Known about the structure:
Elements: H1 7-15, H2 33-47, H3 54-60, H4 62-78, H5 82-96, E1 99-100, E2 105-106, E3 111-113, E4 119-120, E5 125-126, E6 131-133, E7 137-139, E8 151-152, E9 157-158, E10 163-165, E11 169-170, E12 175-176, E13 181-182, E14 190-193, E15 198-202, H6 223-244, H7 264-272
Parallel strand pairs: 1-4, 2-5, 3-6, 4-7, 5-8, 6-9, 7-10, 8-11, 9-12, 10-13, 12-14
Antiparallel strand pairs: 14-15
Helix pairs in contact: 2-4, 4-5, 6-7
Amino acid sequence: MDxxxxxxxxxxxxxxxxxxxxxxxxxxxxxxxxxxxxxxxGCVFQRDPAARSRLEVLTTYPGVHALLFYRVAHRLxxxxxxxPARLLAYLARLVxxxxxxxGATIGRRFFIDHxxxxxxxxxxxxGDDVTLYHGVTLGGTTWNRGxxxxxxxxxxxxxxxxxxxxxxxLGENVRVGANSVVVKDVPAGRTVVGIPGRVVLRQDADSDSxxxxxxxxxxxxxxxxxxxxCLMERIETLExxxxxxxxxxxxxxxxxxADDLCGVETxxxxxxx
Length: 273
């Protein structure tokens, strides 16, 4: 039976499993609609230091407005009131410039920072504590019906302008760098950058905040820069060996704008950064 469930549904089911004999008591039930809305508003203060009051969040945050519309539209969608749900989602897009399909599955404490240009497709599934920045697309790669949008585990952070495409899965606490394009599955705790997205960093457990959410998606390595640094060090080593054997390495490089980047010492300094 569990094999037919989506990854997010399995995570949610395991989170509310029946208590065992040694359990001290029942786990709290999942919150209702108004409980979800309270959590959505409350999590803004944990992830946006610019938020100062609930009134400010409720009246000036388009990401919160879009999520409020979505929570209601999703209930209508589950009740098979598809047209009213789509109409409400359309009105939300007009007001917020955020397009969330009412059929998408979104967990608790979801936050869209800034919000402009975010698109979330019909079969997308998001776990708890997911954060998206402006310009993010969770899109499909096929016109066929069925699962065609990504699944994001709990604690995922997707940077500004990034695209996550297809029926792929991003594990828990994955970070996607700004403007990346992710088209393959990503294991939990990894950082992905580039086009197409490549895993460049494994997240340390100690790097999480007290809330378990790492928002430092901008602190990512530059794999191309590191490759260039390695080449510079290798060239310096080869030229040194040629000089030791009395063989000239060749004509000196002409003066250019990159003079300050040449040399093994500079390469070592770049590697440290």
